[in-house]
Each structure stands twice: as structure tokens, then as C-alpha cells.
Amino acid sequence: MAIYCTHGEVSAFLQVDGFTDSPATTPTQAQVEAFIEMAEERIDKLTDHAWHANRYKTATDERARIQCVNANTHSYRGRIQLRHYPIVTLASGSGDTLNIWSGGSYTEYLANKTAGTLTDPLSGDFWADTERGLVYLKSWPTLFVSTAPSAIDAYVKYRYGTATTPDDIKLAAIYLTSSIIASNDDLNLMPAVDDSMDNRTKSEAWEALGLKMLEPHIGRNMPLARTVAGFGTVR
Fold first, then answer.
1. Chain mean position to CA 56
2. Exposure on the CB side of residue 162, measured as CA atoms within 13 A
């Protein structure tokens, strides 16, 4: 199902009559929606993200290091920077997992610990800043630091994505879909005239514009979540 833009928005951009299945236009509505889905998949891969609630993605067993922050009476607090953000939620009932190294084995926090909140974080054993993809641990004993197998302090499974498609992502989807349509000379959708670009030139220009719209979102995620501890320990 086309999500980031509609077939009507594509036809409006191309300044052609609407696409329909019956009577069948060239291309049909179904074909244009398939082109939109192709553009959406490309956008998601290039940005390493999902841009609508219906396209939320799951990070499974993401490896993470825990950074020591802000000492308390007995130990340090811990902080995990997840690679993707915002995250949808962090709860066992949603299929998420938060496996934390506890000195001899991994403890699944979501099922066995109490969650705090951003406004009352110390009411639980951990809390999450879903908008920034941060997970905080109320207590992270220093004796656990660098003792986990393969130096992996945590394994996290979570869903992530932006709930509502931003305007620039919508426009990128329109450009990339239009590029696909214009690249097919057999469609003869937009016959060139003396004072206009031919379809191939239009296709290349729209693809370039679509990729340009995505530039601010490429590389937005943490390059490698498990390297956060390498930034240093905050005492």
C-alpha cells in the first residue's frame, strides 16, 4: 500500500489526468501505487529509517555498549544510545527486549525490572527517552564494565520510525515515483515538445531532486550503537 504519497499527488505533479484501473490508464492506478512502494523502499534504505507508522521497522538484537554516567551512592548510572530513533516504545508486551549484562549472565529488563518515566525516572530500574533513542539504567555497577562476552553490554530489540510522514519525505517520494514513470518511454505519458525536456532528462532531474530531499536524513542515525562507551566514561 502506498503510504508516503498518493497516486493523486503524483498525477498532480505530472500535470496529467488521474490514474485509474477502470478504465485503465497508462500506467494504471495499481501500477503507480507499486511505483510509489518502490520509491518508499528506496527511501527507507537510503535513510535507514521508516517514515510512517504503517512502515515501522524492527531492530533485532542490536548490540550496544553501556556508557557510565552520573555516579550515585553505590555505583554509576548507565546510558545506551540506540542506533535508530525515535523508537516506538520499549515494553515487553510489544515484543521488545532489553538484555543487560549483569556480571554473569544477561538480564531481560523489560520482563524482570520496573520501568520509570522521563518525568519520574528513579521510580524504576530503567527509563527510556523514546524521541532520542536513549535508554538509562538506574544502576550500572562498575564491576560490570568491560566484563561482558565479546564486550557487548546489551542486546536490544525495538521498533522505530517516525509516525507521520514529513513533507520533505513526501516530496521525495513524489519525485522518485515520477522519475520511474518518466523513465519508461513506452508509456508515452509526457510527450516532449520543442521547448521542453525529453522524458529521460525529466526522469534524471526528478531522481536528483528526490535524492536531494533525502540528504538531511542520510546518516542521521548513530553509526554504531555499540561504540558509545568508547566516547569515555563520565564521572
1. 7
2. 18
**Per-residue pLDDT tens listing for the chain (235 residues):** 899 999 999 999 999 999 999 999 999 999 999 999 999 999 999 999 999 999 999 999 999 999 988 665 666 889 999 999 999 999 988 999 999 998 889 999 999 999 998 889 989 999 999 999 999 999 887 666 667 878 899 999 999 999 999 999 999 999 999 999 999 866 656 555 555 678 889 999 999 999 999 999 998 765 544 444 333 333 3
Q: Are 197 and 208 in contact (CB under 8 A)?
A: no
Distance separating alpha carbons of residues 187 and 189, to the nearest angstrom: 5
Q: What is the pTM of this model?
A: 0.85
User: One-letter amino acid identity for 188?
Assistant: N
116 φ, ψ (degrees, to nearest 5): -90, -170
Three-class secondary structure assignment of 38-95: HHHHHHHHHHCCCCCHHHCEEEEEEEECCEEEEECCCCEEEEEECCCCCECCCCHHHC
As a whole number of angstroms, the distance between CA 82 and CA 86 comes to 9
Q: What are the residue boundaries of the structural domains of the chain, listed by start?
A: 7-53+164-217, 57-160
- Partners of 108 in beta bridges: 99
Which run of H or of E encompasses 101? strand 97-101
The cell for 203 is 526522469
Identify the helix (H) or strand (E) that includes residue 156: strand 154-160
The C-alpha atoms of residue 210 and residue 14 are separated, in whole angstroms, by 14
Distance between CA atoms of 213 and 206, rounded to whole angstroms?
11
β-strand pairing of 97-101 with 154-160: antiparallel
